[in-house]
Structure formats: C-alpha cells, structure tokens
Fold this protein.
Amino acid sequence: MADSGRVKEYEGYLAKGYEPDKDDLVCEYYLEPAKGITFEGACQRIASESSIGTWTDIGTMPQEMFDRLSPKVFSLDKKSGIVKIAYPKELFEEGNVAQIMSSVAGNVFGMSDVTNLKLLDIDFPADFIRHYHGPHYGIEGIRKLMKVYHRPLVGTIVKPKLGLDEEKHAKVAYEAWMGGCDIVKDDENLSSMGFNNFDKRVKLTLNAKRKAEKETGEKKAYLPNVTAPYNEMARRARHVVANGGEFIMVDVLTVGWSGLQSLRDLNLKAAFHGHRAGHAAFTRNPKHGISMLVIAKLCRLIGIDQLHVGGIVGKMYEGKEEVTAVGEEIESKVVSEDFARHRLQENWHSLKPMLAVCSGGLHPAKVQPLVHAMGRDIIIQAGGGIHGHPQGTIAGARAMRQAVDAEMLGVEAKDYAKSHFELAAALKKWKK
Amino acid sequence: MADSGRVKEYEGYLAKGYEPDKDDLVCEYYLEPAKGITFEGACQRIASESSIGTWTDIGTMPQEMFDRLSPKVFSLDKKSGIVKIAYPKELFEEGNVAQIMSSVAGNVFGMSDVTNLKLLDIDFPADFIRHYHGPHYGIEGIRKLMKVYHRPLVGTIVKPKLGLDEEKHAKVAYEAWMGGCDIVKDDENLSSMGFNNFDKRVKLTLNAKRKAEKETGEKKAYLPNVTAPYNEMARRARHVVANGGEFIMVDVLTVGWSGLQSLRDLNLKAAFHGHRAGHAAFTRNPKHGISMLVIAKLCRLIGIDQLHVGGIVGKMYEGKEEVTAVGEEIESKVVSEDFARHRLQENWHSLKPMLAVCSGGLHPAKVQPLVHAMGRDIIIQAGGGIHGHPQGTIAGARAMRQAVDAEMLGVEAKDYAKSHFELAAALKKWKK
C-alpha cells in the first residue's frame, strides 16, 4: 500500500481528561523513560507498541483505523511515574488471556525507550468479566465442601517436597490430617517422579484421606499437583477426579495461561488450587515487570478457586500492603480504586470470589498477625511449620489447629499453650 | 513421623570442588544475599528451596534421603555473585518443563533471604536432551523448505499489528512477498479478533501466498499466530496445516510451557516460529529474574524451529553480547562454557539447531551490522522497516532484499543504492 494520510508514530495517543467507559480495558503502569525520551513520549510509545503501532510511521495505517483503535493515555504523572492507558476492547480477543498479555504485557518491557516499566493493574471491561467462567467453587463453595464455615482452613504441604515415595507421602498426609489439618497438598515441584509416581501417589493418598475422614469425622482434602505438558496434565486431572479427588493443584505460571485456561474449561468436578511458583521473577522488582495483583486477577478470571498470595509474615519478601491489596481484590465483588496501593477499580459481576492461600514460612506463632491482616477467609498453609514440630507431623498439625482455635476464641497463643502442649512446643521452637 | 536423625536446614549443600557429571542438571545463578545473610548461607538456601528443603529442619527427611537427593553448591564466588549448583536428575520429571522451572526458577526468586537472584543458564543432563524432540525442521529443514540456502531469510510482520481485516491483511502480505520477502508473519497480539477472524485470515493469506509463489517463482511462507487457550490453539494449528500452511507462529511465553509442549507434540507437519512477547518482564534486569538464554534453550528442547532472540541494533534494549550468546547456543551442536557471558557448556546431541530470528526496529541500514554480529543463519525480520518505506510495502520489501543482496555481495548498502532506488529511499528515511 502506498503512502497516503499516514499516521505519525508516537503522536495522537495523549487524551488527558478522557474518562474510560465500561468497554475499555484500562492498564496502570509505572514507567521510567530512557535517557533522552520525555515522559509523555515514553507513555505514547508504550500505548503504541501494546496495541496498533510500531517504531516508525507506516503507510498501511489510515487515520480512520487509528481513531477507532488507538488506546488513550488519559492519566500521566511524571513525578510518580504512574500512567494509565485505556484500550478499546476490540484490541483484545476477549477469552484469550495469552493474547491480552502479549498485548499489554508483551514487547513493552523490552523497549529501549524505557528504563523500567511495571504493569501494576488491569481493569477489565464488563464484557470480558462476563465472558470468563471464574471460580467454580470460590470461597463459599470451598467452605461448603470442607464443612468449615467460620475459621481459617488449615493446610500443609507434604515435606520434604521431594524425596518421599508414594507410601511415605500418603503416611505423612495421613498424619497431618489426623493431627487436625483440613488440607494436604503436594509441593510445587512434585509432579510424577521416578521415586513417586503421580497415579500411585494419588490413589494411596486419597485412600489415606478417606481413612482420616472416617477416623476424625472431619472432611479432609488432598490437592495433587497435576503440573505437566497440557495433555498429560489433563489426563492427571481426570485421574484425580476418577479416584474421588475433589481438588486439583496446578503451578499456574510455569504451566502458563493457555494450558491453565483449557484445564479449567474441562469443567471437572473439582476445585482448583493455584500455586504461583516463579512469580517473583517478575513481580518482585517494584519498578519493572508485572504485579502479583495482575496475576491474581487473571487467575480469578480463568477460574482458580484458591490461590497463593503470600504469607506476609513468612519466608517470602512481600509485605502487608501488597498482600492485603491482592487478598481484597480476589475476595471482593466490587473493588474500588486505591491510589496508594496502585489498584484500579473492578466490578467482578457474577464471578465468584477466590480464596486466598497464605503460605511460606508460616508456623503457629504467625497465626495471629496473619489473621489480623487477612481476615478469616484464608487457608493458613504451613509445611516446615508443621512437619518441623519437635514431636513430628501429628503434633505439628495439632499445634497449628490449636493456634487457629486460640485466635478464634480471642485467646493469646501463649496462654492457650498452657493447656495445649503441642502448641507450647511449637512456640518454644519458633518464637515469631 | 517423629524426630530422629533430622537434617539441619541450610547446611550440607556446600560441595566446593565437586565436578558435576552428565546426570546432573547444573544451574548458574547470580545472587545477592539479603542483609544479615552470608553469601554461603544464601547459596544453600537457594539450593534447598529449589529442591528438597524448606525454611526449617523437619522430621520427615532422613539423612539417607538428603544424601541421595540434595543438590551440590560446587562453585560460588562472593565477589561476582556467581553460584553454580548441580542437581541430581532424579529431582526432575525429565519431559516436564513446567516442573523443571517450578523447581529451579520457582519460589527462589521470592525468598526474603535474597535481595536479587537471576537464573543465568541451565546445563541439562544428557538424558534430558535425548528425551525431548527438539526442532522438527531446524535451520537445515527451514532452508530446504524455503529453498534459500546461503543468505539470511527476509521476513516481515503485517503492520499495523492490529486493525486490518482479513482481506487487507492478505493484501499487505501479498505485497510483501511480491517485493521480495520470504516470510510474512502475524504480530504477537493478533489472534482471532472481531475485525479479523483467524480461520478466514489464514485461508485468504495462504491463497495470497500461493499466488505470490506462482508469480515470483520463489517459495514463500506465512506464519499465522495460533496463540490461544490450548484446545483452541491446537484447533487453529490443525486448521493451518489443513489449509496448506507449513508454518505456525506462537507466543511461547504468554502461552506457557505446558501448552507449548503439547502443541509441539501434536507432531503437525509444520515448522514452529516462536515469538517471545513478555520475556523482558523477567529477562531485562541483569540482577534478577531469568535470562533469555534459558528461555531460548527451553524452546530448542521443546522443539521450536525458529525463535526471536533480539535485534541487537533495533528498538529493543539488548546488546550484542547477550544476543550473540543466545544465537550461538541455539544454533550450535556443542556449546562451550563462556565465563564472560555466563553461559554453561551444553551438548545438544541429536537435537537440531534452531534458527535465530532478529526482529524489532530493523530496517535496511541495519542489515550489515546485524549480519556481521549474527552470521547468515538468521531471519531478518522488519515490520515498520518495510511497511514504513516512503513508497509503501512492495518497495519496502524490495529495499530490504536489496540490502541483504548487497551484504552477500560484499558491497556497501550506500553504493548498492546507487542502482537500486528502493534501497536509496529507505536509506534516506532511516539513517542507521
């Protein structure tokens, strides 16, 4: 096509004061321009590269197309580095998370025009929200399934994360359930190993679960990690359900968006537990990458029922501000904009809330600060903080349930420990 | 399980002088410990968290298991921050990329014990290499398919990346082929849109390809972007092949490892083109995240035939050192360790080499420096640098082929331009 009325690159994207409507997809970024590039210029380059433009003017884009499809940089603040861009929804394939991410979280991070760029949040158009399934169970469904309505659920990870054979795995799980855990899960790097076959592990551990349910009178859950190439992952997920499993665990990020969406869309009769292994490779730097908030929102859209969001007080780096912002986002129906925590508004319409899983370096002494920060609608998940108990796994699970009971009764853990020796031993080993 | 002979956490992983054998998976990391943590301590915490350990000692791990499965920190240098860890291959499910990444590129990035951590390279055990398919076509297969044996292939992306309908898309592609492009591809954010349906686009553009082949006598290729949820992606890929397409394009990172592996394993009669949209969210920071080298190696393992590796001289941030290290890795049979560029050794055994795609802000004036850096076994891919030509797409494609011809003849582009007016016009618009 020859040159006629061509659009000048990097111009025409500024629209200060524009008010996004319900059909826009809005992104909030933190941006530092490269040396020699103005803030306004860099904002427009991001808007261009994430939508319809490239680095030079081209003869194949008429003005009419630009007017119809170009995103609008409607808010930008050089001092804070915050820029907000509204994209017409036509730029996206609504049910295709990978395509959305290839657009607004794709080439833009590598452009030499910026030194740092972080995608902080995405506010999805109402149409998109309605298009996705969202969680099948959600908080209410999980609580109903587990018959635990008022307290945080107590979970553990079988530890060591790798090394146990199928029988020992089932035995550790059984002990954790007998001690009081509601939930036992595989760890993120346990799939089907030479020393621990997936199918056999699932069979034996689900048998142990049924035994523990019978003996304790409590509902128990086992979350096998199905992470694998898609076809094998789908087979493993079906195998879990066929063996009576009600939960499926998946490493959402290393599996990736395409596999995750199709896995959810199998519509299996099971709740999905999402582990976020690998997220901090791009969420941790406050100036560059993608926020955990965005990852969590995509998981809720797709339909993960419960997702790791951080432990606040544990072995991971994230603080209270960051984790509670994510926790509120995934558990609320309507989320209001929060300037301080860089969270946009969102109306989740009919999509169910997703349960927050707090994990990573937790133990009984951390229950109180965790519940104070995150509320009761959480899974408190401890691996080392249970199996590392001086008296072993059963005592470790007891100690954790006792810590949760104390918090529900409004009693300090150290006081409750006077009449609960497992809790006392835990508090002696792990101070805070 | 009760306490007996428990392994003390974060100790026992140091093995200075250990020589990894062919059954080890070796990782090289850059590491900065958090305040108050020693370098040796942080190295061991990374080794622990990425394998069998957790943050506290646990009663469920006997010494025998630790001795058998614990990784070895065999090289560490506090000054440079470089640490190398050898993992027994039993820690991994050999054909499961997501599991491997959940281990060595999982929780470790988020640990509060480190301030920064970057996975620089993975040297895979010989067994793993043999277990994967690798590229179906590879460099030789692609050259044979395209009947272009000695020069770089010339590719373009239909631009604007979003906005054209199916007919206009096919028309721009046709003009690019007629002008001299070997390859025309969709862009990373074009999938199936309201204004441009995937199936219809593929049909019309493949028709245009056949027309261009007939009229030019040259072999041409169209690379439709199948990026979508897995099941739909597989359907689209099959649709391409059913309509006579010989190439399939996919956004490797936003699709994710599980979907990518199963897509490759469909064993379609088509070559895979990998776009790396989103990589710089975690590859760009030299101190934290995952290197592009690791991503490229995983793509070669899985079986991508040609992969974006950067343009060196274009609109993206990466420099020559980084891009050539990746280029050599994916195109060689045996790779030797390179301390300066943080590349481990690798023997690719029977896995075919993967063709390097150079893209991002390229135009005719950049052909010479690019070929000097990367050699002839590349695809030189230009979007704006072709469609942005003052005389339009056909002239833009001609100018790019002329620039490649000049370089192959050993003639300076500015001299060749004296008798080639399209090249002259391009060099006038884009200086360097």
